[in-house]
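Lab notebook, page 48
Experiment: co-folding of the full assembly
Goal: obtain a model of how the components sit together before planning crosslinking
Operator: M.T.
Materials (sequences as entered):
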Amino acid sequence: MNRKPSSQLTRSRIYYAWLFVAPTLIVLSMIAGWPLLRTIWFSLTDISLGNMQEYDFIGIDNFIFLMRDESWWQAVWNTVCFALISVSLETIFGLGIALILHAHFKGRAWVRTAVLIPWAIPTIVSAQMWRWMFNDVYGVINFMLVKIGLISQPLAWTADPFLSMSALIIVDVWKTTPFMALLLLAGLQMLPQECFEAAKVDGIHPIRVFWRVTLPLLKPSITVAVIFRTLDALRVFDIFYILTSGSEDTMSMSVFARQQLFEFQSVGLGSAASTLLFFIIALVSVIFLTLGRTRADAREDH
Amino acid sequence: MVSKTQRFILYFSSFFIMVIALFPFYWAIVSSLKSGTDLFRTDFIPPTFAWNNYVEIFKEQPFGRNILNSICVAVGTVSTCLLLAVSAAYSLGRVRFRGRSLLLGSILCVSMFPQVAVLSGMFELIRSLGLYNNLFGLGLSYLIFTLPFTVWILTTFMRQLPKEIEEAAILDGANTWTICFRIFLPLLWPALVTTGLLAFIAAWNEFLFALTFTVEAQSRTVPVAIALMTGASEHELPWGKIMAASVVVTLPLIALVLVFQRRIVSGLTAGAVKG
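Observation: model returned without errors.
Model output:
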C-alpha cells in the first residue's frame, strides 16, 4: 500500500488518473462546493433578492433572529416529527413487504412490480394525487371513511395541523416504503441460508426465527436503509409544498428556507436557515457514522 | 412446507399491498376521465370516458412544451453525467493513488447535501452565468444530485472488471483514453443503463430547482407545470386536468419500470448496499 510510485508506468497511470477524475471534481466544486460556500457567506449578511450586489456583513444576526423565531422552530419540529414517524413506519412496513417478497409463491413478481410503481411516480404527481384524494368535500378518502362509519363528518385533511401532518406522513410512507422494502429484500437475499435451514430442522417457530435470526442478521441492511431515508426525510420539500401550500403551521425546514429566500426576498435569512439545515444533516450523518463504527469495533472485539 | 393458514396470510397481504400501491394511480386515471360534475361524484368506474381533460391540457397551456423541456433537461443531464462519471470511475476504480478514498468520500458527501443548502448560491451562480430561466442552467444544476451516485455506482462496477483485460491492453500499447472508453465502456453497458435510468428518473422528477430557476410557463418542466396548474379561481383547482397531466407524465415512467425492473432494483440496491 505505502510503496512509492517507482516505475515510469505507475507514475503515468497516476497522472492520467488525476486527469480523468479532474472534470468531475471541477464540475462538483463549481456546482456544489462553491454554491455551498456562497450560501454560508450570504447567511452572515443582510443581502436581499432585489439587490444582490450591495450588502453588509452582519455577523450572526440572522442566526440569532432564527433562534427567536417561533415559525422556524415550528418548521424544525415539523420536520423532525415527520422524519421520525415516517421513517419508523417505512422501516416496519418495508420489512414486512420484504419478508413477503422473500417467500416463494406464485405471483410474487406481480407484487414486486406493483410495489415499484409508487416509487417511480414523480413526488409532485403523487402529492397531487393524494391531495385530490384527501380533498375535504369531494375526496375519496373522506367518502370511504364515512361509508365504513369510522367518521361521521368529512375531515379537513389539509387545513388542520394534526391531520395534515398525518396526511403528509401517509403520502411519504406510501411513496418511499418500496425503496425501503427493496433494500431490505436485497439484504435478506444475501443472508446465509444455513442458519435458516438449521432453524427449520430444529423445528423452531418461524416467529422466533424472525426475532432471533433474521432481525439480528439483517441489522446492517436496516441501518443503511434507515440512514438513507432519514437524511432524505430531513430535507423534504416537495410534498410539504404541494399538500399544505405553505401554511405557517405545517412547513418543513426546506419550505421555510425557500419561502424566506424567494417569497420574502430576504436571501440572508433564508441562507441562514439553509445553512442550519445543512449542519443539522451533517451532524445527523456524523452521529450515524460514529454509532455504526463503534458498533462495528465492538463486534470485532468479541 | 408452508401451511394453509400461512399461504392464506401471504396471499391476503400481497393482495392488500397491491391494492394500496395501485389504488391512488387508478383513482387518478378514473378522475382524469371524468368531465364536468361527474368529477365530484365518487364513482369507481367513470360513467363515460371523457377525453376532454387530456385535450385541454395541451390546448390551454404549453404542456407539450413542458414535456419537451423535461425530456431535453433529463437527456442532457444523463448524457453529461455518464460521460463525466465513466472517466472519473475509471480513475477511482482502477488506479491506486493517494487521496483516492478521500475523493470517493467527498463525492459521497455531496450526495447527502440537502438541495436547499446550495439554493441561494446556485441561484447566484446560474444568474451570473446568464442561465436563469434556461434549460442549460437547470441541466447543469441537476448534476449535483445525479453525478455523485453515478460515479459511486460506476466505480464499484469498474472495480469488478478483470485485471487481465487492462494488462493485455497496456501491453498492446493502448493509452488510457482507449482503455477507458474503447475497452471498459462496452463492458460497462449494463451498469450504464442502470445508472442512466436512475439519473433520468431523478432529473425527470426534480422539483425544487426547476421551480426556483425558471419563471415563464414556456420554460417550466413537467413537475412545476403540474404543481402550478390553476383553474378559473384560486379556490377551484382543475382536478380533472391535474390528474390527466399526472397520468401523461407517469405512464412513460411506469413503462420504464416494467421494462427495466431488474436493472432498476439492482442499481438501487448496489448504490446503498455497497456504499
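Interpretation: Chain A touches chain B through 94 residues (CB under 8 Å).
Next step: discuss with group before ordering constructs.
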